[in-house]
Design brief:
By secondary structure, the chain is α/β, with parallel strands linked by helices. The chain has helices at 2-23, 55-64, 106-111, 127-138, 152-163, 166-189, 215-220, 241-247, 273-276, 299-310, 312-315, 319-331, 337-343; strands spanning 30-34, 40-44, 50-52, 116-121, 142-146, 194-199, 205-206, 222-223, 237-238, 251-254, 280-282. The longest helix is centred in the middle third of the chain and has 24 residues, at 166-189. Helix 10 runs antiparallel to helix 12. It is built from 13 helices and eleven strands. It is 40% helix and 12% strand. The N and C termini lie far apart (99 Å). It is globular and about 70 Å long.
């Protein structure tokens, strides 16, 4: 009889445990997310492997979730070696959805283990159709997060929602909000200087007023490059020397790998006010162009630099400390004074 009672009790306990397990809440496998262009997308409940659609998204997401990246859009620049952990160099190169440097490599994407592809930046006119088609073709969810310079904080908060990283995203968002608000304050307190940002191996391309690439230039200066059709490309609009002379900027910013180092030896440039007065500078580069190309979150470094360069009395900025803070938050590294001085070699006045 005791044996029968014991067996019955054991059976009841097993039944009770099974019932409790059946009633316990199960973690869902998927959830829905509405992206910045209104697409409601079913995504995995937990996202541990993230792919990026291009270099702009790569910079934004490296700041937030470097160890979740399933791949990168393009190889890191050589200058990144002195800042980034070497483990990030072994990530597969996926290519990019938009731009002139090749297409998204779907074969590599499918073998990368990526659970989602995130596009960040200015939405293209065909963004909804493009992402819907790729999602259907690959079976991987694609989402777009709109990120303009003024709204980068909100973009990070949206990414924090998507990746379930609210605290980490808020730290980056709060930084962006603070730096942008201070930049707007400085811009509103000064008489803006007449400026051109030029690119190209002859210095005859300009980043035109009103273009996506000109956001911080337009904010912090009187951007003289007014053209009929501002280019959406980072190379800008091509002009001629006659037009440069007509604009006659008081300050010129030369893109990396332009003619900064040789411009003083070019007779055609010597009557330009900026060159004549020695008010021309090379945009810092490391590990990306601080003014854009791609026009991603590193433009916050460009805002800090331009504020101090053009309006030091209004900015009242310890630029080295500000750059240190950015590198720690967004690049997960400490920058030394020697590294900073090398970056600034041609970028600040005497």
């Amino acid at each position: 009889m005791k044996r029968i009672v014991t067996l019955l009790l054991a059976a009841l306990m097993l039944l009770s445990t099974a019932c409790a397990a059946a009633k316990a809440p199960q973690t869902p496998q998927t959830r829905t997310f509405t992206d910045s262009v209104g697409r409601t997308v079913e995504v995995p409940y937990t996202l541990d492997k993230v792919a990026v659609s291009g270099p702009l998204a790569q910079i934004v997401l490296f700041a937030l979730c470097p160890d979740r990246l399933a791949g990168i859009a393009s190889k890191w620049d050589k200058t990144a070696e002195q800042f980034f952990d070497i483990k990030y160099y072994d990530l597969p190169v996926l290519g990019q959805l938009y731009g002139g440097k090749g297409e998204l490599n779907l074969e590599t994407l499918l073998t990368s283990g990526a659970q989602i592809v995130i596009d960040v930046g200015e939405p293209k006119k065909t963004i909804v159709e493009d992402l819907d088609a790729l999602q259907e073709q690959t079976g991987i969810p694609f989402v777009h997060i709109t990120a303009l310079t003024a709204s980068m904080g909100d973009a990070y908060r949206k990414l924090g929602e998507l990746l379930d990283m609210p605290a980490e995203a808020e730290a980056l968002a709060a930084y962006c909000d603070r730096v942008y608000a201070r930049t707007v304050e400085i811009a509103g307190a000064v008489e803006k200087r007449n400026l051109l940002y030029v690119t190209g191996d002859q210095g005859l391309n300009v980043i035109a007023q009103g273009s996506y690439h000109a956001e911080i230039i337009d904010l912090l200066s009187n951007n003289l490059a007014v053209v009929e059709n501002p280019s959406s490309k980072g190379t800008g609009n091509e002009v001629d020397m006659e037009q440069i002379l007509l604009w006659d900027p008081e300050v010129i910013l030369f893109a990396p790998e332009s003619i900064y180092g040789d411009v003083k030896n070019r007779p055609e440039w010597q009557t330009v006010t900026a060159i004549r007065n020695g008010e021309y500078y090379e945009v810092p580069f490391g590990p990306y162009n601080w003014m854009g190309f791609p026009p991603s979150v590193q433009r916050y470094l460009g805002m800090l630099w331009m504020s101090e360069l053009l309006y030091p009395e209004a900015a009242q900025l310890d630029l080295f400390a500000a750059v240190q803070e950015y590198f720690k938050l967004f690049y997960h590294c400490d920058i030394t004074r020697e590294q900073y001085d090398a970056l600034m070699q041609n970028s600040l006045g005497a």
